[in-house]
Amino acid sequence: MRLRRLLACLTKTHSLSSNTISMSSPQKIVVVMGPTGCGKTKLSIDLLSRFFPSSEIINSDKIQAYRGLDITTNKIPLSDRRNIRHHLLGHFTPSDSHPEFTPSDFRSAASAAISDILSRRRIPFLVGGSNSLIYALISNKFDPDTDVFSSSSSSAFCREQRYHCCFLHVDVALPVLNAYLDKRVDNMLGSGMFDELKAYFSSGESDSMSRSGQKKAIGVPEFEGYFRRFNEEEDDVEAYEGAVGAIKDNTCQLAKRQVAKIQRLRECAGWDLKKVETTAALTAALEGASGRRVAEIWERQVLEPSVKIVKQFLME
Predict the structure, then answer these.
(1) Distance from CA of residue 246 to its chain's centroid?
(2) How far apart are CA 304 and CA 7, in angstroms?
(3) Residue 233 carries which DSSP code?
């Protein structure tokens, strides 16, 4: 009910048409960031489909930029995109001369996508968890030969930004996130991840040097040993369980590194990150609460404050 009243207020007091927003500030972009599994994708789809329809999404998850392995890389299925246009999602095909999608590639491709979206008087939403890509795009000065996140000096970060950004930081308590990520891996395996990886290794794609970037997707190195020894009639249960355990551990470690990078962007790059908390919603889902109850928590604690933050940013 509160969210419906907010929507009515938005519609009455400020038309979120592409013309109004783009003409007032052509360089405004919204950035939805946070660790893997925190709810960035759901939040972005809810925001665009229900409140900011004159918007398009630019993927900023590095491994999801590669074509293929859609389940393993957890790309949002076409059926779940609610007709929202997505850029740089599964668009990159590696080659021998260009085996990896680099931060420089992203800076160039995402800049072009932003220009295209703004030229059509629409709002770019940058959504993903690869903070190195987000920094490469947003920072006014970017050195592709320097990994600012591995530097011990805060002066390595550029504090000037190329765009006027609204940063939505989707945050969640790590113990809750770790439990949720374990469950997500199980769900991905149940949705066909194992068969997808089996086909990937059987096809010989994993042996190609041109696939060096895609090989870094969590799930590929963990299952490589298993599929090298795989036998249709006599698979190795222990090796399978070991691979699954490694995927879960490495996914949780990835989330921890992402959280640390976000903290450095706040402290060293001076980014004004607006935090929205998904801990309660994920906890309710893990504890088996009804879908209605989970939705109520999500709307009250995640979606409603996010709508207010983005609305205020676009009206400034």
Answers:
(1) 21
(2) 9
(3) S
Strands 55-59 and 273-277: unpaired
Q: Say how far apart CA 310 and CA 239 lie, in whole Å.
A: 47
Q: Tokens representing 29?
A: 């972009």
Place of tokens 């929202």: 84
pTM, two decimals, is 0.89
- pLDDT tens digit sequence for 125-175: 999 999 999 999 999 999 999 999 998 888 899 999 999 999 999 999 999
Dist CA 148 CA 143 (whole Å) = 9
Q: Contact 32/170 with Cβ under 8 angstroms?
A: yes
The amino acid that residue 181 corresponds to is: L
CB 131 within 8 A of CB 149: yes
The four Cα atoms 286, 290, 296, 301 give a dihedral, to 10 degrees, of: -10
CA distance 142 to 261: 16
